[in-house]
Amino acid sequence: MTQTSPSGRASAWLDHFGAALGRHDAAATAALFDADCYWRDLVAFTWNICTQEGQGAIEKMVQARGADVAASHFALEGEATEADGVVDAWFTFETRLARGRGHLRLKGTDQGDKGWTLLTTMTELKGFEEKTGTHRIKGAEHGVHPGRKSWLEERAHEQQTLGFSEQPYVVIVGGGQGGIVLGARLRRLGVPTIIIEKNAKPGDSWRNRYKSLCLHDPVWYDHLPYMPFPDDWPVFAPKDKIGDWLEMYTKIMELNYWGSTEAKKAHFDEATG
Ligand SMILES: Cc1cc2nc3c(=O)[nH]c(=O)nc-3n(C[C@H](O)[C@H](O)[C@H](O)COP(=O)(O)OP(=O)(O)OC[C@H]3O[C@@H](n4cnc5c(N)ncnc54)[C@H](O)[C@@H]3O)c2cc1C
């Protein structure tokens, strides 16, 4: 791999970027970007969803957050590509608390390769990795265990107790697709959660709309986490199909979903925090 291949160029930029961040040098970090530049962060650097536009905004953000975030281990993921003079690359990285994935677009300029767009996203918290793949739970207890509860009994117990004798850690108000996928993510992290929704069933916010409604974006842009739509689904999925998918997703993901439940008010308890 040479410095002139797209992967070499992206790797070199990421090395400089990681080094500048490592020195907490906000000015040098910002100088790696083109004058026309955008850094969109999903949680990883800012605990927020926001876009820094221009070198000045990037410098300020790095000044404010760089030391605390302590980003490192920037590494190309797969091969970078180049089209119309723009290098396009995926990469992974770590922060003090988390692991992340990002996307970079570089422009070749007189001053060398400069960052045009950068995306940084947090994918998991260190110490709270989701139990997937080889880390999945066993799900069965072999041998003789008198009184052992089946999965169905465990699930029924959770539904009977959570929100009654056991209080959830999170209540999500609104069980549309945003609430549902947040619930799925929290479920995987083992955070006791209830989703409340004023409609009767998951998917009703789609079903209740006008008859000809379908997704406006092609279906391949619309996947929910963990479970992509089947690859024979129509390009523009009709609303009732989406409604059924959300209902099925809620069940398969074992979400505690209270339909016909409306949030009337909420307040912060100063005494208990
Ligand atoms: C015509 C149209 C086409 C679209 N096409 C696409 C597309 O192709 N691709 C795409 O990605 N996005 C598309 N979107 C956008 C997408 O639908 C929304 O971004 C998405 O639904 C937002 O999800 P949400 O869960 O945040 O909100 P909503 O889906 O609006 O869910 C909010 C839920 O909260 C409930 N609720 C509100 N108040 C309370 C309360 N006090 N107590 C209990 N429950 C409450 C509501 O009943 C509702 O179910 C489209 C939107 C429209 C309108």
What does this structure look like?
With 273 residues, the chain is α/β, with parallel strands linked by helices. It folds into two domains: 6-125, Roll (Nuclear Transport Factor 2, Chain: A); 151-258, FAD/NAD(P)-binding domain, CATH 3.50.50.60. It is built from seven helices and nine strands. The protein has helices at residues 6-22, 26-31, 55-69, 151-161, 177-189, 204-207, 239-252; strands spanning 33-42, 49-53, 72-83, 86-94, 98-109, 112-125, 170-173, 193-196, 257-258. It has a six-stranded mixed sheet. Strands 7-8-9 form a three-stranded parallel sheet, covered by helices on one side. It is globular and about 70 Å long. The site of flavin-adenine dinucleotide has 19 residues, from helix 5. Flavin-adenine dinucleotide is lined by residues 173-179, 196-199, 205, 213, 215-217, 222, 262-263.
Which helices and strands occur, and which strands form pairs?
Blueprint lengths: L5 H17 L3 H6 L1 E10 L6 E5 L1 H15 L2 E12 L2 E9 L3 E12 L2 E14 L25 H11 L8 E4 L3 H13 L3 E4 L7 H4 L31 H14 L4 E2 L15
Parallel strand pairs: 1-6, 7-8, 8-9
Antiparallel strand pairs: 1-2, 3-4, 4-5, 5-6
Bound molecules: flavin-adenine dinucleotide.
